[in-house]
Amino acid sequence: MVTKTSSQDALSRAREFSLAGLMGALGLLLPIGFHALGWGGSVFLPMHLPVVVAGFLVGPAAAATLGVVVPILSSVLTGMPPLAPPIAPLMAVELAAKAAVASLLYRSLRLPLWAALAAAIVADWVVLALAAWLAAGFFAIEAGPLQYLAVVVVVSLPGTILQLLAVPLTVRAVERRVPRLRPTPPEGRD
Amino acid sequence: MPHHLDLYVKRESPLQGLDPRAKMLAAGGFVAAVLVAPMRPPWSLVALAVLLMGTGTLARVPARLLSRRLFALTVVIGMPFLLSRLGGEATRAAGEQFAARSLLVAATFLVLMATTRAIVLLEVAERLPLVSTFGQMGEFILRGADLLAEEVMRTNRAWRLRAPRATMKVRLTGLTQASMSLITRAAARSERVGAAMVLRGFQGRLPMAAPARLPWPHLLAGLLFALISLGLAGMGRWL
């Protein structure tokens, strides 16, 4: 019995890792496509799309790990986002928080998809403001975190709208294709 | 097998032959030196830039690769630098500092990635205690990127053959449908990959061979490079 449970755990973790890995790969390739079309990464947030989708399909730990790894790996392999100025580390923190919050609310607390997505976007902004405040102190940057956040939110508005439209559609399409990825209803509720 | 996103350039040079752990140690020391080196007078940063150029030349990293990649960073680094020129003395100094350090850090990673396979660096990261999960996830991403890049190239070829004169609207519709199909197929594929991983002995992590010992000459070379870099950074503070 113990062996069966542990092998089921291993299978579940292996599936999570492989799905997160493929979504992470899209997180590397989509920005390249957007840049090739001349659409700015900071406006359309192409890296956010697959990472947030992964947040709805895998557990919080795998989602947060993916959020950290994608911007750093992309930075090392493609040069974007840059490590210094510390845009990649800031993105790592915000993507980890965004994906983990999405996963926690949708898969663990079973909130509706749109509510979890809205909360994840707000969590992203809060974490970004905090991280910018810490980075500003460390790098002696004069602009305040709220000024930085205001600029980021306004500039990335098209990307946020794109996420609100594309993420629910994509998650539903994936859940239809692979029904196992739907969050299971809590015990005692059908 | 080379990966699609890998920057590795196959060359015969001492740097390519150096153990990746030693190279990571050297790169870490160099980046730390770049971050602590004083801007005024700029001799430390100039000396570090010369050291890096010398290393790149020794490793026979193509100058075209370096310049192309650094040029791509021009917007991110150049725009704030140019804007800082409009400000006062302090803003101009901050702009110079930002541009110089950013370019040097970016060039360091370029030289590291051009002389070491990305998968090898991720395998090293997988053995490190705090970043083990990140390294493992990075390996999955790199392999996934290969699968998806092949798929994208196949779709692109099919598009060029079947619809060479399609309008932008048709292309965008096709691109959206292809992206959606790519994501759903990626999810379905992950089921099979997960099962295959368990068959290969995945128990939270894939079984790994015991790491070879880091040879002393390699460790010394990495350490020496890091110390020289930090020494050059310290020299600027001293002078």
Give the topology.
The complex is a heterodimer of chains A (190) and B (239).
Chain A: H1 2-36, H2 41-44, H3 48-57, H4 60-78, H5 87-108, H6 113-139, H7 145-155, H8 157-177
Chain B: H1 14-17, H2 20-36, H3 43-58, H4 63-72, H5 74-84, H6 89-115, H7 118-127, H8 132-162, H9 168-199, H10 216-238
Q: Main beta sheet of chain B, described?
A: none
- What is the averaged pLDDT score of chain B? 82
Helicity of chain A, in percent? over 70%
Q: What is the number of strand segments of chain B?
A: 0
Whole-number average pLDDT of chain A? Answer: 83
Number of helix segments of chain B?
10
Which residues of chain B form runs of ≥5 with pLDDT under 50?
none
Shape field of chain A: globular
Identify the most extensive interface between protein chains: A-B, 56 and 57 residues
User: Which value, in Å, is the CA radius of gyration of chain A?
Assistant: 17 Å
Q: How large a portion of the residues of chain A is in β-strands, by DSSP E?
A: under 5%
Report, as a whole number of angstroms, the end-to-end distance of chain B: 48 Å
Helical proportion of chain B, percent range? over 70%
- Per CATH, the architecture of chain A is Orthogonal Bundle
Largest sheet of chain A: none
The DSSP helix count of chain A reads 8
Structural class of chain B: mainly alpha
What fraction of the residues of chain B are assigned to beta strands by DSSP? under 5%
**How far apart are the first and last residues' alpha carbons of chain A, in Å?**
27 Å
Residue runs with pLDDT of under 50 for 5 or more positions of chain A: none
